[in-house]
Amino acid sequence: MNMTMSSVPDSRCGRVEVITSVQCRRRWTTAEKVRLVEEAMQPGLSVSYVARRAGISPSQLLSWKRRMLEGGATAVQADDDVVGVARVQELEKRVRDLECLLGRKTMEAEILKEALALAAPKKPVLRLASLDRDGSP
C-alpha cells in the first residue's frame, strides 16, 4: 500500500513526503534528465535542492550532469555528434558480426578456388617425338 502524508510545509522544500511502501525504481526519460540537469545549472539553484524537489539522490543528479558535460566536451573536442554507449556497443557488435561473415565468405572463396584447380582439366602437353642424333625422326 502506498501512503503519502504531507506535513507542515518546510521553508526550503515546500513539503515533506513520507513513503511507507517499497517503491519500484523510477525510469527517467532523457528529456526529464536534461530538464533536471539544466535546472540544477541555473544560477541560485543547487543540485541538492533540485534533486530533493524531484525526489532523487543528489549524487544521481550529479552523475547525469557529469555525463552530459563529458559527452558535450568530447563532442566539441572531436567536432562530432555525441553518441550513446548503447549505440556504440550495438555498432561494435554489428562490426564483429560482419567481420565474422567476411571471414566465412573468404574461406568459402579459397575452398572454391582449390576445388576449381583440382577439377579443371589438365592442359595437354605436346611431346615431341624423340629426335635421332642426326636430327631425323
TrEMBL record:
Keyword line: Plasmid
The keyword Glycoprotein appears for this protein: no
InterPro entries recorded: Transposase_8, Trp_repressor/repl_initiator, WH-like_DNA-bd_sf
Domain of life: Bacteria
A Gene Ontology molecular function term of the record: sequence-specific DNA binding
GO BP annotations listed: DNA transposition
Keyword Transferase part of the UniProt annotation: no
SUPFAM superfamilies (UniProt xref): TrpR-like
Family: Belongs to the transposase 8 family.
Protein name: Putative transposase
Lineage: Bacteria, Pseudomonadati, Pseudomonadota, Alphaproteobacteria, Acetobacterales
